[in-house]
Design a protein that fits this description.
single chain; 7 helices; four-stranded antiparallel β-sheet; alpha+beta
Protein backbone atom coordinates (compact mmCIF):
# COMPACT_ATOMS: atom_id res chain seq x y z
CA UNK A 1 0.00 0.00 0.00
CA UNK A 2 2.73 2.46 0.92
CA UNK A 3 4.71 1.56 -2.21
CA UNK A 4 1.66 2.11 -4.44
CA UNK A 5 0.93 5.51 -2.94
CA UNK A 6 4.60 6.47 -3.15
CA UNK A 7 4.64 5.62 -6.88
CA UNK A 8 1.55 7.75 -7.50
CA UNK A 9 2.77 10.73 -5.47
CA UNK A 10 3.95 13.89 -7.17
CA UNK A 11 5.36 17.26 -6.22
CA UNK A 12 1.88 18.73 -5.88
CA UNK A 13 0.18 15.75 -4.20
CA UNK A 14 1.78 13.52 -1.59
CA UNK A 15 0.76 10.01 -0.52
CA UNK A 16 -1.64 11.13 2.19
CA UNK A 17 -3.41 13.60 -0.10
CA UNK A 18 -3.90 10.89 -2.74
CA UNK A 19 -5.33 8.47 -0.17
CA UNK A 20 -7.73 11.06 1.30
CA UNK A 21 -8.87 12.12 -2.18
CA UNK A 22 -9.78 8.53 -3.04
CA UNK A 23 -11.57 8.05 0.31
CA UNK A 24 -13.63 11.19 -0.23
CA UNK A 25 -14.44 10.07 -3.77
CA UNK A 26 -15.83 6.79 -2.36
CA UNK A 27 -17.78 8.75 0.22
CA UNK A 28 -19.29 10.99 -2.50
CA UNK A 29 -20.21 8.00 -4.69
CA UNK A 30 -22.05 6.41 -1.75
CA UNK A 31 -24.00 9.62 -1.19
CA UNK A 32 -24.99 9.77 -4.88
CA UNK A 33 -26.14 6.13 -4.79
CA UNK A 34 -28.44 6.93 -1.85
CA UNK A 35 -26.30 4.84 0.51
CA UNK A 36 -25.31 7.56 2.97
CA UNK A 37 -22.65 6.79 5.56
CA UNK A 38 -21.63 9.19 8.31
CA UNK A 39 -18.95 11.60 7.07
CA UNK A 40 -15.35 10.56 7.48
CA UNK A 41 -16.14 6.82 7.54
CA UNK A 42 -15.84 3.91 5.08
CA UNK A 43 -17.20 0.39 5.13
CA UNK A 44 -15.18 -2.63 3.99
CA UNK A 45 -16.76 -2.64 0.51
CA UNK A 46 -15.82 1.00 -0.09
CA UNK A 47 -12.37 0.38 1.36
CA UNK A 48 -11.68 -2.52 -1.03
CA UNK A 49 -13.07 -0.59 -4.01
CA UNK A 50 -10.92 2.40 -3.17
CA UNK A 51 -7.74 0.33 -3.10
CA UNK A 52 -8.77 -1.51 -6.27
CA UNK A 53 -8.96 1.84 -8.04
CA UNK A 54 -5.39 2.47 -6.91
CA UNK A 55 -4.23 -0.92 -8.20
CA UNK A 56 -4.18 -2.87 -4.91
CA UNK A 57 -6.41 -5.92 -4.51
CA UNK A 58 -7.64 -6.79 -1.02
CA UNK A 59 -9.68 -9.80 0.07
CA UNK A 60 -12.56 -9.39 2.49
CA UNK A 61 -10.50 -11.02 5.22
CA UNK A 62 -7.59 -8.64 4.64
CA UNK A 63 -9.90 -5.62 4.72
CA UNK A 64 -11.57 -6.83 7.93
CA UNK A 65 -8.17 -7.38 9.53
CA UNK A 66 -7.07 -3.87 8.64
CA UNK A 67 -10.28 -2.44 10.07
CA UNK A 68 -9.58 -4.19 13.37
CA UNK A 69 -5.94 -3.16 13.31
CA UNK A 70 -6.58 0.53 12.65
CA UNK A 71 -9.68 1.00 14.80
CA UNK A 72 -13.14 0.60 13.35
CA UNK A 73 -16.16 1.78 15.33
CA UNK A 74 -19.00 -0.32 16.77
CA UNK A 75 -20.77 -0.25 13.39
CA UNK A 76 -17.73 -1.65 11.62
CA UNK A 77 -16.85 1.65 9.87
CA UNK A 78 -13.30 2.93 9.52
CA UNK A 79 -12.41 6.62 10.08
CA UNK A 80 -10.26 7.20 7.01
CA UNK A 81 -8.50 10.28 8.41
CA UNK A 82 -7.12 8.13 11.24
CA UNK A 83 -6.26 5.35 8.79
CA UNK A 84 -4.34 7.74 6.54
CA UNK A 85 -2.40 9.14 9.50
CA UNK A 86 -1.47 5.66 10.70
CA UNK A 87 -0.53 4.38 7.26
CA UNK A 88 1.80 7.28 6.52
CA UNK A 89 2.96 7.98 10.04
CA UNK A 90 6.36 7.14 11.56
CA UNK A 91 6.59 4.42 14.26
CA UNK A 92 6.78 7.10 16.96
CA UNK A 93 3.75 8.86 15.50
CA UNK A 94 1.81 5.60 15.30
CA UNK A 95 2.64 4.91 18.94
CA UNK A 96 1.27 8.30 19.92
CA UNK A 97 -2.01 7.56 18.16
CA UNK A 98 -2.60 4.37 20.13
CA UNK A 99 -5.20 4.60 22.91
CA UNK A 100 -3.51 4.52 26.29
CA UNK A 101 -4.23 3.37 29.80
CA UNK A 102 -2.40 4.48 32.92
CA UNK A 103 -1.51 1.71 35.31
CA UNK A 104 -2.29 -2.02 35.21
CA UNK A 105 -5.66 -3.65 34.74
CA UNK A 106 -7.81 -3.11 37.82
CA UNK A 107 -9.33 -5.95 39.79
CA UNK A 108 -12.62 -4.07 39.83
CA UNK A 109 -14.22 -1.87 37.25
CA UNK A 110 -13.70 -3.98 34.13
CA UNK A 111 -11.74 -2.70 31.15
CA UNK A 112 -9.84 -5.96 30.83
CA UNK A 113 -10.31 -6.06 27.05
CA UNK A 114 -8.15 -2.95 26.50
CA UNK A 115 -5.46 -3.62 23.86
CA UNK A 116 -3.76 -0.24 23.53
CA UNK A 117 -0.56 0.98 25.16
CA UNK A 118 -0.26 0.79 28.94
CA UNK A 119 1.81 3.29 30.91
CA UNK A 120 3.43 2.12 34.16
CA UNK A 121 4.89 4.47 36.71
CA UNK A 122 8.33 2.85 36.82
CA UNK A 123 8.53 1.85 33.12
CA UNK A 124 10.25 4.32 30.77
CA UNK A 125 8.38 3.10 27.68
CA UNK A 126 4.78 1.95 27.25
CA UNK A 127 3.94 -1.74 27.05
CA UNK A 128 1.28 -3.54 25.06
CA UNK A 129 -0.85 -6.62 25.78
CA UNK A 130 -0.08 -9.72 23.69
CA UNK A 131 -1.85 -9.91 20.34
CA UNK A 132 -3.74 -12.94 21.67
CA UNK A 133 -4.81 -11.16 24.86
CA UNK A 134 -8.09 -12.45 26.25
CA UNK A 135 -9.65 -10.02 28.72
CA UNK A 136 -11.96 -12.67 30.15
CA UNK A 137 -8.94 -14.32 31.77
CA UNK A 138 -8.19 -11.10 33.65
CA UNK A 139 -11.78 -10.99 34.84
CA UNK A 140 -11.39 -14.49 36.25
CA UNK A 141 -8.02 -13.75 37.87
CA UNK A 142 -9.49 -10.67 39.60
CA UNK A 143 -11.43 -13.03 41.86
CA UNK A 144 -9.63 -14.71 44.75
CA UNK A 145 -8.84 -18.37 44.08
CA UNK A 146 -10.71 -21.08 45.87
CA UNK A 147 -7.43 -22.68 46.87
CA UNK A 148 -5.19 -21.06 49.47
CA UNK A 149 -2.00 -21.49 51.48
CA UNK A 150 -1.71 -22.41 55.14
CA UNK A 151 1.33 -21.36 57.15
CA UNK A 152 2.63 -24.48 58.86
CA UNK A 153 6.13 -23.69 60.11
CA UNK A 154 8.60 -20.83 60.19
CA UNK A 155 12.28 -21.71 60.15
CA UNK A 156 15.09 -19.56 61.48
CA UNK A 157 15.49 -16.75 63.94
CA UNK A 158 16.03 -13.13 62.97
CA UNK A 159 18.58 -12.18 65.59
CA UNK A 160 21.63 -11.17 63.58
CA UNK A 161 20.65 -7.59 62.82
CA UNK A 162 18.25 -6.94 65.70
CA UNK A 163 19.64 -4.52 68.24
CA UNK A 164 16.69 -4.62 70.69
CA UNK A 165 15.66 -7.60 72.89
CA UNK A 166 13.69 -9.98 70.69
CA UNK A 167 13.02 -13.32 72.43
CA UNK A 168 11.15 -13.99 75.72
CA UNK A 169 9.49 -16.75 77.72
CA UNK A 170 5.74 -16.34 78.29
CA UNK A 171 3.76 -17.28 81.41
CA UNK A 172 3.01 -20.75 80.03
CA UNK A 173 6.68 -21.45 79.27
CA UNK A 174 6.48 -20.81 75.56
CA UNK A 175 9.01 -18.78 73.61
CA UNK A 176 7.85 -15.70 71.76
CA UNK A 177 10.01 -14.11 69.03
CA UNK A 178 9.58 -12.76 65.50
CA UNK A 179 10.71 -13.49 61.95
CA UNK A 180 9.93 -11.10 59.08
CA UNK A 181 6.33 -9.87 59.63
CA UNK A 182 5.28 -12.75 61.90
CA UNK A 183 5.09 -12.91 65.66
CA UNK A 184 5.83 -16.52 66.63
CA UNK A 185 4.90 -18.42 69.79
CA UNK A 186 6.92 -21.63 70.01
CA UNK A 187 5.95 -24.47 72.36
CA UNK A 188 9.17 -26.45 73.02
CA UNK A 189 7.29 -29.19 74.88
CA UNK A 190 5.13 -30.11 71.88
CA UNK A 191 7.35 -28.65 69.15
CA UNK A 192 4.54 -26.51 67.71
CA UNK A 193 4.25 -22.92 66.56
CA UNK A 194 1.45 -20.39 66.53
CA UNK A 195 1.53 -17.11 64.63
CA UNK A 196 0.41 -13.55 65.07
CA UNK A 197 -0.18 -12.22 61.55
CA UNK A 198 -1.40 -8.66 62.16
CA UNK A 199 1.68 -6.95 60.69
CA UNK A 200 2.08 -6.13 57.00
CA UNK A 201 5.86 -5.54 56.99
CA UNK A 202 8.95 -6.58 58.92
CA UNK A 203 8.74 -6.52 62.70
CA UNK A 204 11.62 -4.53 64.17
CA UNK A 205 11.29 -4.99 67.95
CA UNK A 206 9.40 -6.87 70.64
CA UNK A 207 8.56 -6.28 74.32
CA UNK A 208 7.00 -8.56 76.94
CA UNK A 209 4.35 -7.41 79.42
CA UNK A 210 5.18 -7.93 83.14
CA UNK A 211 2.34 -10.47 83.28
CA UNK A 212 4.21 -12.54 80.67
CA UNK A 213 1.04 -12.98 78.62
CA UNK A 214 0.86 -9.87 76.45
CA UNK A 215 3.44 -9.00 73.82
CA UNK A 216 4.10 -5.73 71.96
CA UNK A 217 5.61 -5.87 68.48
CA UNK A 218 6.55 -2.84 66.39
CA UNK A 219 7.25 -2.82 62.68
CA UNK A 220 8.88 -0.78 59.95
CA UNK A 221 6.71 1.58 57.88
CA UNK A 222 4.92 -0.49 55.27
CA UNK A 223 5.42 0.27 51.57
CA UNK A 224 2.27 -1.59 50.53
CA UNK A 225 0.25 1.62 50.22
CA UNK A 226 3.08 3.51 48.56
CA UNK A 227 3.65 5.90 51.47
CA UNK A 228 6.13 4.04 53.69
CA UNK A 229 5.78 6.70 56.41
CA UNK A 230 3.51 5.25 59.11
CA UNK A 231 4.86 2.44 61.28
CA UNK A 232 2.66 0.94 63.97
CA UNK A 233 2.76 -1.46 66.90
CA UNK A 234 0.45 -4.18 68.13
CA UNK A 235 -0.13 -5.41 71.65
CA UNK A 236 -1.35 -9.01 71.43
CA UNK A 237 -2.05 -11.95 73.71
CA UNK A 238 0.49 -14.74 73.21
CA UNK A 239 -1.37 -17.19 75.47
CA UNK A 240 -4.48 -17.42 73.27
CA UNK A 241 -4.86 -19.81 70.37
CA UNK A 242 -4.40 -18.24 67.91
CA UNK A 243 -2.60 -15.15 69.30
CA UNK A 244 -5.08 -12.27 69.30
CA UNK A 245 -4.66 -8.50 68.95
CA UNK A 246 -5.50 -6.37 71.99
CA UNK A 247 -4.46 -2.89 70.84
CA UNK A 248 -2.86 -1.10 67.88
CA UNK A 249 -1.07 2.27 67.96
CA UNK A 250 -0.11 4.08 64.75
CA UNK A 251 2.71 6.59 64.29
CA UNK A 252 1.84 8.75 61.25
CA UNK A 253 4.30 11.22 59.74
CA UNK A 254 4.24 14.67 61.29
CA UNK A 255 5.55 17.83 59.64
CA UNK A 256 6.93 15.90 56.68
CA UNK A 257 9.09 13.72 58.94
CA UNK A 258 8.49 9.96 58.95
CA UNK A 259 8.95 7.77 62.01
CA UNK A 260 10.29 5.02 59.66
CA UNK A 261 10.07 2.19 62.19
CA UNK A 262 9.66 1.28 65.84
CA UNK A 263 13.20 0.96 67.20
CA UNK A 264 12.60 -0.31 70.74
CA UNK A 265 9.85 -0.74 73.35
CA UNK A 266 9.38 -1.64 77.00
CA UNK A 267 6.45 -2.07 79.38
CA UNK A 268 6.51 -0.33 82.75
CA UNK A 269 6.48 -2.59 85.84
CA UNK A 270 2.80 -1.76 86.41
CA UNK A 271 2.02 -2.99 82.89
CA UNK A 272 -0.11 0.08 82.12
CA UNK A 273 2.51 2.21 80.42
CA UNK A 274 4.52 1.47 77.30
CA UNK A 275 7.66 3.30 76.24
CA UNK A 276 8.17 3.48 72.48
CA UNK A 277 11.25 4.70 70.61
CA UNK A 278 10.60 5.54 66.96
CA UNK A 279 13.09 5.59 64.09
CA UNK A 280 13.00 9.27 63.16
CA UNK A 281 16.28 11.21 63.25
CA UNK A 282 15.51 12.34 66.82
CA UNK A 283 14.67 8.82 68.02
CA UNK A 284 11.63 10.22 69.75
CA UNK A 285 10.88 8.53 73.08
CA UNK A 286 7.14 8.39 73.84
CA UNK A 287 5.34 7.13 76.94
CA UNK A 288 1.82 5.77 76.38
CA UNK A 289 -1.05 4.46 78.42
CA UNK A 290 -1.36 1.80 75.79
CA UNK A 291 -4.84 0.49 76.63
CA UNK A 292 -6.50 3.78 75.56
CA UNK A 293 -3.64 5.03 73.30
CA UNK A 294 -3.09 8.05 75.54
CA UNK A 295 0.24 9.78 74.94
CA UNK A 296 1.55 10.86 78.35
CA UNK A 297 4.77 12.60 77.28
CA UNK A 298 7.66 12.38 74.84
CA UNK A 299 11.22 13.60 74.34
CA UNK A 300 14.32 13.38 72.15
CA UNK A 301 16.10 10.06 72.52
CA UNK A 302 19.24 10.54 70.42
CA UNK A 303 20.04 12.43 67.23
CA UNK A 304 21.31 10.47 64.25
CA UNK A 305 20.45 8.03 61.52
CA UNK A 306 18.53 5.08 63.03
CA UNK A 307 19.09 2.86 64.78
CA UNK A 308 20.97 4.86 67.39
CA UNK A 309 18.89 3.54 70.30
CA UNK A 310 19.11 -0.20 70.92
CA UNK A 311 16.77 -0.80 73.81
CA UNK A 312 14.64 0.43 76.72
CA UNK A 313 14.75 -0.95 80.29
CA UNK A 314 12.54 0.14 83.20
CA UNK A 315 13.78 0.41 86.76
CA UNK A 316 12.09 -2.55 88.44
CA UNK A 317 13.29 -1.59 91.91
CA UNK A 318 10.87 0.18 94.24
CA UNK A 319 11.79 3.81 94.76
CA UNK A 320 9.98 4.29 98.10
CA UNK A 321 7.27 2.87 100.29
CA UNK A 322 3.91 4.56 100.71
CA UNK A 323 3.18 6.40 103.95
CA UNK A 324 2.55 4.12 106.92
CA UNK A 325 3.99 1.09 105.13
CA UNK A 326 1.37 1.22 102.41
CA UNK A 327 1.73 0.18 98.81
CA UNK A 328 4.97 1.01 97.07
CA UNK A 329 5.03 3.86 94.59
CA UNK A 330 5.15 2.79 90.97
CA UNK A 331 8.53 3.60 89.49
CA UNK A 332 8.66 5.95 86.52
CA UNK A 333 12.39 5.68 85.82
CA UNK A 334 13.70 3.93 82.72
CA UNK A 335 16.88 3.78 80.67
CA UNK A 336 17.51 3.99 76.93
CA UNK A 337 20.85 2.86 75.56
CA UNK A 338 22.54 2.67 72.19
CA UNK A 339 25.42 4.04 70.13
CA UNK A 340 27.90 5.70 72.50
CA UNK A 341 25.24 6.79 74.97
CA UNK A 342 23.02 5.79 77.84
CA UNK A 343 20.16 7.96 79.08
CA UNK A 344 18.23 7.85 82.35
CA UNK A 345 14.66 9.03 82.09
CA UNK A 346 11.98 10.02 84.59
CA UNK A 347 8.39 10.18 83.36
CA UNK A 348 6.27 12.74 85.20
CA UNK A 349 2.68 13.88 84.75
CA UNK A 350 3.46 16.62 82.24
CA UNK A 351 6.92 15.81 80.85
CA UNK A 352 9.64 13.25 80.41
CA UNK A 353 13.13 14.26 81.54
CA UNK A 354 16.41 12.66 80.61
CA UNK A 355 20.02 12.92 81.71
CA UNK A 356 23.09 11.02 80.62
Amino acid sequence: MRATLSALASFNEDERMILLRQCRHEEACAAQAAQPIPPGLLNTHQFRHMWRSLGVKLSREQAAAMFLRHGCDVQGLLPYEVFAAKLQGSPARLLALEPEQKGPYKASGGGWGFKGKILYRYCRKPVFPPSTWDGTLAAVSAKPPKAGLILEWVYGYNGKHNTAPNAFYTANQKIVYFVAALGIVYDPANHTQQFFQGHDDDISCLALHPGHALVATGQVASALDGSADSPFLYVWDATLSPPTSVQRIDFPAEGGSSSRLIVAMAFAPDGERLVVVTGDNRHTVAVYKWRNKQLLNQGVGHNGQPPQVYGVVFNHFVAKQGAGGGAAAVTSMFVTYGVKHIKFWVSTVDAVRAHR
